[in-house]
Amino acid sequence: NASICLETDPVITNLATPILPVRLDAPVDLSVADDTQFNPTWETSAGADFFQLEVSTDRTFSNPNTIARRLIISSFPTVSGQQQGLAEPMNLSQEPALLADPIYRAFNNSGINPPTIYWRVGGRHEEDRPGPVDWITKKPDSGDLTWRFVYGRASRFTPAIRPPNPPGKSAVARLNREMNKTRASNLPLPLPGDVNGQKSGTRSQVPTIQDILGGARNRRRL
Questions:
Q1: How far apart are CA 20 and CA 119, in angstroms?
Q2: Rounded alpha-carbon distances, angstroms, from residue 94 to 97, 99, 100, 114, 157
Q3: In a designed cystine with 114, which of 14, 42, 49, 159 is the match (CB 3.0 to 4.6 A)?
Q4: Residues pairing with 158 in the sheet
Q5: pLDDT digits (tens, 9 = 90+) for 63-120
Q6: pTM > 0.85: yes or no
Q7: Distance of alpha carbon 199 from alpha carbon 212, whole angstroms
């Protein structure tokens, strides 16, 4: 019996565009930067028409719940070495993924003891299916494209120390109530040393400095 070989037309599957890892520009590694106006820049990589910026307090970028990310369309998809950045800065202090870290959350509340923040950028060609191996699961057959990018080296920075937070709403409301009461009685605001908000004198008489300074002593004698 004669054997017959049949040859079908070749089928192209799983195209992958060769893309060089993205090079980061600013903020430079180990620098101090304003995390409330985070505005990084990096270089384009030929073949990458999409970039994903990722920011985390975890240097391994292994937990997707602690990674803040932005997807950016490349301005120069066929050229390498052009500067690329965000349309507007990120306020990292309002990113839920970063606030999930208790250390960063404590810094966000106090403005002191800042943690190290890591950032990186991945590139990919949008038509590649499936594209690079999934960074989180390490599975080459993952259908989720969220973490399928060619990543370069991560960079790190320390958030700048912030000024103390302004008084809370309750403190402001309490001060307003005291001011309104004082206006109504035509008396000056209580001075330090007054007990329980009591004021010396009456509505018809403004207390003297002697009254104020000796008020606590006089009350003890009564």
A1: 18
A2: 9, 7, 11, 15, 18
A3: 159
A4: 32
A5: 999 999 999 999 999 999 999 999 999 999 999 999 999 999 999 999 999 999 999 9
A6: no
A7: 8
